[in-house]
Amino acid sequence: MYTGILNQYQDLYGFAEDYPVVSLHEGNTPLIPALRLANCLGVEGLKVYLKYEGLNPTGSFKDRGMTYAVSQAKFDGAETVVCASTGNTSAACAAYATRARLKSLVIIPEGKIALGKLSQALMYGASIIEIAGNFDQALNIVRMLGERDKRLAVVNSINPYRILGQQSGAWEICDALGKAPDQFFIPVGNAGNITAYWAGFKKYHDLGKISQLPVMMGYQAEGAAPIVRGHAVEHPETVATAIRIGNPASWQGATDARDQSGGHIDLVTDADILGAYSCLARHEGVFCEPASAASVAGLMKACAEGRVKPHSTVVCILTGNGLKDPDNAVLVGTKEVARVSLPADESAICEYLGV
Ligand code: F0G
Q1: Which residue among 50, 53, 58, 62 has the greatest number of ligand 1 atoms within 8 angstroms of its CB, and so is best to mutate?
Q2: Measured in angstroms, how far is the CA atom of residue 17 from the centroid of ligand 1?
Q3: Rounded CA gap, 189 and 243, in Å?
Q4: Whose CA is closest to 62, among 78, 86, 46?
Q5: Model pLDDT for residues 211-248, shown as the tens digit of each residue
Q6: How remote is the CA of residue 86 from the centroid of ligand 1, in Å?
Q7: CA of 31 to the centre of ligand 1 (A)
Q8: Strand, coil or helix: what is 30?
Q9: How many of the other CB atoms lie within 10 Å of CB of 119?
Q10: Can you give the pTM of this predicted structure?
Q11: How far apart are alpha carbons 203 and 167 in whole angstroms?
Q12: H or E segment to which residue 116 belongs
């Protein structure tokens, strides 16, 4: 039976037999071929795969890091796990804390958390502090709390166990393909995930499990693109609230991944993001949240710029489930499909349909 990434990759993680693994059987997410998308990108022989992280237990990739960070907090005897979040980290933190019988405290920007994520934190029983500020301010507060009180374990991606856990995504991709992809496309917010994937690919390369490393392609939202612009953004803004971040904690990790792999970190507009978001749902049957679609928006841009070679294999990571953000889904979807209100009357329906 599959029992989560820590047990699956225990030989690589190397923790002891009696380690208190806290798991919801995260990971083992599908790598879905995107044939229609590949065909419309104008690059000959291109193979595109979507790593659908929205199928994790709390609906995002954060579960991979949270299983390890919360297990370690339990091991270290912490009472409470705490995080700043744009939503997904808070959902995962609250769920795994409950699983570990620890308390959770989440600090989030008021009014900027997608509805699904907020409902998760509430249902899993976190204590929630909403601040009239953004993610970057929330993270500074959390860092301060962690330093002040050792009973609080910070489970943001500044916690190295988060990064270790998230490496498992790279390993699964290589295990599924039998090699690393030529290029790897990923949204960049606080930049923990691009850092983790690069570390994961390098680890597999060092172990001789893959012979070539992928080129890392990271994408920020235009209004929240500090790495692309080369300076922190004080008031980040984007429809993709998950990556509404102006001063990423793992900035260096992201630029290292880019530079060591010969990759590229660029921005995509909110319109690009929503276009890719809608395209994935309507043409591939894969529903992700807006921030996740930044990877595919990035692939579209990179293809148009000639950055993607013919006959190459690329993977786009879809970091979170579309159900996380029902408000944006209804807004975008309503513009694109036929949706009418009619009386509960057979002839009215027949007349409308012309049958
Ligand atoms: N995609 C989604 C759906 C996310 O929730 C996040 C980050 C990212 C991409 C970016 O990943 O930060 O590792 O570069 N969400 C964090 C949160 C910040 O609080 O849930 P990153």
Answers
A1: 62
A2: 31
A3: 4
A4: 86
A5: 999 999 999 999 999 999 999 999 999 999 999 999 99
A6: 7
A7: 19
A8: coil
A9: 14
A10: 0.98
A11: 9
A12: helix 115-124
